[in-house]
Amino acid sequence: MNSKMTTRRAANRVGRFCEPLETRRLLSEILSAPGKPHVMEISAVGANDVVWAPASDNDGGGISYTLWYKQLGSHVAVPAGTTSGDSLPLCNGYPTDPISPRTGYLVWVVSKDNNSGVSRASVGSRFRTDDPLTPAMVRKAYGFNQIYKEGYQGQGEVIGLAELGSDPTLAADITNFDRMFHLAPPDLEVVNESGGSSPMPPDTGHGHEIALDVEWAHAIAPDAKIVVVEGNDSTTDTTTSIQGLLAAAQEAASLGASVVSMSYGYDESAFDASGVGTVQQLDSDFQKSGVTFVAAAGDFFGQPGWPSVSADVLSVGGTQMSLGSSGNFNNEIVWQNVDLSDSTKGSGSGYGQFSSQDDPSGRQTPDVSYAADGYSWYFDGALNTEGFGTSFGSPQWAALLALVDEGRQRKGLENLDSNTGGDTSLEIHDALASAAATDFRDNSASFGEPASQGSNIQTGLGTPTANLMNYLITYQ
After folding, report:
1. pLDDT tier for residue 12 given thresholds of 50, 70 and 90
2. How do beta strands 125-128 and 187-192 pair?
3. Digit-coded pLDDT (tens) for 249-277
4. CA–CA separation, 412 and 313 (whole Å)
5. Which of 42-46, 85-89, 202-206 is least confident?
6. Can you tell me the distance from the alpha carbon of 135 to that of 382, in angstroms, rounded to the nearest whole number?
7. Fewest CB atoms within 10 A around its CB: which of 94, 131, 379, 451?
8. Are 285 and 246 in contact, with CB atoms under 8 Å apart?
9. 207-244, pLDDT tens digit by residue?
């Protein structure tokens, strides 16, 4: 009996091995697994890029890749997108499901043979998202603590914030922000575009912009007075909004601001039908001796907008800043807004349509840059930890220049300004251009490329350092 069973089992084994090999194709002959994914440029809201080595396409049918991820400890796997290339972003908003700060994730890639339908999965990679940026983190990363130790806090300076509409919860939001991040309350004044305390413009949906501008200008220059000028706005009439922003900026300067930040932008084509004048004609509105006007370059790559295209404005673009485990500066690259599915979105870099001075090709923006992603801020009673946009850079550059003006006044020097109108004042663009390349953070010439020094069309001259600020304080 045992002999029969042994014979039967042997026969079964022989039968299996005798199947014709030519009728079967090994998976490795059809498709290989993609390489282990490498997670690049991690922020609080994900990773700007996940890259992998392509699989082998042995039958010529083409391969597609799906990036998958799951939170560590979870059994729920989520597809992040499909591509025929070898990289995809994994950030909040792309895919739709949110990526949370301070959270660990596992990512892997599945290759699919488009002819056979066979799939192979890569080995997984783990990563942890960063903490959202706080005032202390930004100050440390850019080296501003050195400036504070030298006694510069913005004392005696006025920062003007030109806004549109109003923010009914502004006072409470600032209080929450300051308590959360251990800041003293700001010296704050809020007026309308005529300088009065009433009537204030209606809330047209820009309240979040006003809140983040005040909070982050205050975070960088804690002792400076902040004057918020709320201009008339319209959700349907561009002319009203442009005129409101201009009026707010002018009123802020008249109220003693040495720096005025504008976190809004309009396509230059809007001026053709607005009736407010051409971009060139409006340059004179920003030619005020002793005042630097600062504007966000925008969040759409290749589409710089007014007022940042004005030659008499300091245009601020965006970067993606990465911090080390101890909170020290790690690196920066060009900011690409991967929260929007269009990969051309990012810092508002490029050339304006019209020249504001002598360059017939139009003005290149931005002039400088600043971290543009992963911010903490309060609005409408809630703490947000995924704030992004060049709107964060504009008020912070204004605050930095307020510190610079404070230092210059202590040394008996006049304020810098953005006036290229031909007066004898010291002009901020000239001052920045004369600084050493090493006074700026290294920045990449295009998205994903290694860091480089010098000016480029994506990030201008780069992001600030304590050395740059000290240079500007003594510039003559």
Report:
1. very low
2. unpaired
3. 999 999 999 999 999 998 887 776 667 77
4. 25
5. 42-46
6. 17
7. 451
8. yes
9. 999 999 999 999 999 999 999 999 999 988 888 999 99
| Cα–Cα distance measured from residue 387 to residue 44, given in angstroms and rounded to the nearest whole number | 10
pLDDT at 15 exceeding the cut of 80: no
Establish how many alpha carbons lie within 13 A of residue 242's alpha carbon, considering only the half-sphere containing its beta carbon: 22
Q: Other C-beta atoms within 10 Å of 204: how many?
A: 16
Q: What's the full length of the chain, in residues? A: 476
DSSP, collapsed to helix, strand or coil, labels residue 230 as: strand
User: Could you tell me if 219 and 181 are in contact, meaning their C-beta atoms sit under 8 angstroms apart?
Assistant: yes
CA–CA dist 137, 104 (Å, integer)? 20
- Give the span between the Cα atoms of 251 and 454, in whole angstroms: 35
pLDDT of 11 higher than 50: no
DSSP code of 23?
G
Contact partners, residue 117, CB within 8 Å, separation at least 6: none
Q: Which two tokens stand for residue 171?
A: 């006072």
**Spatial separation of the C-alpha atoms in residues 390 and 347, rounded to whole Å:** 7
Residue 269, classed as helix, strand or coil, is helix
| pLDDT at residue 53 tops 90 | yes
Domains belonging to the chain, first-starting first, are 29-128 (2.60.40.10), 135-474 (3.40.50.200)
Query: Cα separation of 265 and 304, whole Å?
Result: 8
Q: Are 259 and 226 in contact (CB under 8 A)?
A: no
**Global pTM?**
0.81
Report which of 213, 384, 224, 372 is spatially closest to residue 297, judged by C-alpha positions: 372
Structure-token match 């029969």, residue found: 4
For 327, the token pair is 């909170």
Cα 435–chain centre separation:
24
SS3 per residue for 36-93: CCEEEEEECCEEEEEECCCCCECCCCCEEEEEEEEECCCCCCEEEEEECCCEEEEECC
Mean pLDDT score, 402-410: 98
pLDDT at 381 over 80: yes
Residues 384-410: what's their mean pLDDT?
94
Structure tokens at 198: 């009433």
| Cβ(404)–Cβ(311) below 8 Å | no
Q: In whole angstroms, what is the distance from residue 382 CA to residue 298 CA?
A: 25
**What kind and span of H or E run contains 314?**
strand 314-323
